[in-house]
Amino acid sequence: MSTNQLQSIQYACQRLNEKPQRIYNLIRENIFPDGVVVRLGRRIRIDPERLEEFIAGGGQALPGGWRKEDTGGAAV
Predict the structure, then answer these.
(1) Rounded to whole angstroms, how far apart are CA atoms 14 and 26?
(2) pTM of the predicted model as reported, rounded to 2 decimal places
(3) What is the rounded distance in angstroms from the CA atom of residue 12 to the CA atom of residue 36?
(4) 30 φ/ψ angles, rounded to the nearest 5 degrees
(5) CB-count burial class (<10 Å; 0-12, 13-18, 19+) for 46
(6) Which of 6, 22, 25, 58 is at 20 to 30 A from 45, Cα to Cα?
(7) What gap in Å lies between CA 49 and CA 1, rounded to an integer?
(8) Distance CA 36, CA 54 (A)
(9) DSSP character for 21?
(10) Is the pLDDT of residue 1 over 90?
């Protein structure tokens, strides 16, 4: 773990230019690699150094890429 202070979700919102709900969804979908998200009970903190490494590395694509994964349901 870095020696930087852990940051709030707002830090990730500012760095990624996303709303808090989107950041929480990305966390729930395990998009961020180990070490970026630190859970302290119900609180969630962000390691800024690891987040910067994630951004510099190009991030990670969502499952299914830009197309929505087929769930086998009827076409809409």
Answers:
(1) 15
(2) 0.72
(3) 10
(4) 55, 40
(5) buried
(6) 58
(7) 9
(8) 8
(9) H
(10) no
